[in-house]
Automatic annotation (TrEMBL):
Post-translational modification comment from the UniProt entry: The Fe-S cluster can be nitrosylated by nitric oxide (NO). Upon Fe-S cluster removal intramolecular disulfide bonds are formed.
Organism classification: Bacteria, Bacillati, Actinomycetota, Actinomycetes, Kitasatosporales
Predominant location: cytoplasm
Coiled-coil spans in chain: none
Translocase as UniProt keyword: no
Organism: Streptomyces omiyaensis
Encoding gene (name): whiB
Region listing for Disordered, in residue ranges: 53-85
Name the record gives this protein: Transcriptional regulator WhiB
Length: 85
């Protein structure tokens, strides 16, 4: 287990909060609540980095971003890297 996880703010919260089901208003509200926890987390960047570098991207909210937001960030990062080369 990554050592940063012990300091994560989510350790104090029901893990289900970070795994909203569906795309409707309740799931969006749940994701927003999870992101509030992430905003106060001292290891948010480590969490996001772990989710972004995982060869099998995890489900749910990690490092303050949803799966869709992380996919978008990956695409933008790839495009930026391609533009530099």
């Amino acid at each position: 287990m990554d050592s940063w996880r012990a300091a994560a703010a989510c350790q104090e919260v029901d893990p289900d909060l970070f795994f909203p089901v569906g795309m409707g208003s309740p799931a969006l509200a749940q994701a927003d609540e999870a992101k509030k926890v992430c905003r106060r987390c001292p290891v948010r960047q480590q969490c996001l980095r772990a989710a972004m570098t995982d060869p099998h991207p995890p489900a749910g909210v990690w490092g303050g971003l949803t799966e869709a937001e992380r996919r978008s960030l990956r695409r933008r990062s790839r495009r930026g890297a391609e533009a530099r080369h």
